[in-house]
Amino acid sequence: MALYLSVKEIWRNKGRFFLFSLVIALIAILVLYTAGLASGLASANKEYLEKLRADVLVFKSGVNYSTIESRIEYDQLRRIRLLEGVAEAGPIAFSNAKIVFDSEVDSIDVSFIGVDPGKPGAPNAVLGDNLRFAHSKVVLVDQKVAEDSNVSVGDFIKLSSTQGEEDEVYELRVVGITDGQQYFFRPSIFVSLPVWDRYRPKATAGVYRNKPDVNVVAVLAKDSTRLAYLPEAISAVIDDVETTDIQTAYESAPGYSEQQATLGTLQGFTLLIGTLVIGGFFQIQTLQKIPQIGMLKAIGTPDRIVASMAILQIIFVTIIGVLLGGLVTLGLVVGMPDNIPIQFSGSSVLTALIALLLIGPVGGMVSIRLALKVEPLTALGM
Predict the structure, then answer these.
(1) Who contacts 77 (Cβ-Cβ below 8 Å, separation ≥6)?
(2) pLDDT per residue as tens digits for the range 66-85
(3) What is the pTM of this model?
(4) Are 2 and 10 in contact (CB under 8 A)?
(5) With contact defined as beta carbons under 8 Å apart, do 86 and 220 qualify?
(6) What is the domain partition of the chain in residue ranges?
């Protein structure tokens, strides 16, 4: 009975209900777009760190886990490798550089990362080979670099780096292509640590070392039982360092928490506005049909039927609006330029959809309560 009445009313006033579904669709577009933007910006900031094959990251103490400010001497890395419970420890050194082209194609800004081949911090290739030898002038590039520069395994790229007062260009052979490894909103390229120190931007040209200071040490524990005490053991034995897990490291990046909090707040306000809009619409809808509700109650229709009818209408209109909004959002994302960091993860989309589907019934609670309070005789003017 409730289903029949709700569908019948929606069909008789389909224009009105469809227009309101469009309003819900607009709210859904904004919520889903914001969720995708939050995931995309987060991924562009943390993708490399998130995929690290490591249990513990070691930073210089007092730098708030900043990869830019952290400096760890190579001798400290060797001492970390000798600690009991450490299976492997790999250095990670960060810098920035550009890939330049002979043609008029724009240069590409990249994160220039130095690692030890085969150690934690060095990603695995999905095409070609991994980095293998410390002094080889080869490079492992991520998929975005390969797509943007149209290079494949075996090709050469030209790396531009400031050396003193001049910009120098170096050729590196692409030995492999890894998956997405963005860091600080830039795609990444990987070389061995000696090659990184030779080619990285520096104030004085020609100054480099085979074993330079690094920014972070990625540590892999021998087993899970030793992982519990490994951070304390590293901090106790190695001076002037502190340890953390991967999630804390990327969440401590400058602006990361503020960025995610801002986008989360925007989503929250959008959902709140949606709840109020839905509540207002259905309250007006209920006020307009008080005589009809009174007639139903006068002929013996129980309150549960009246309430169920209102709830079903709210659910139908909300589902239609969310579906329309989801389809429009999908179309917008497909047509978005590559430089806009929109990325949808299963968890973020599911959370956004559940929240959107819940705001309908929550917002419509006032109208349901109003319908249940209708007195038949009063509604009929008697």
Answers:
(1) 89, 91, 214, 217
(2) 998 999 999 999 999 999 88
(3) 0.82
(4) no
(5) yes
(6) 2-43+256-379, 56-244
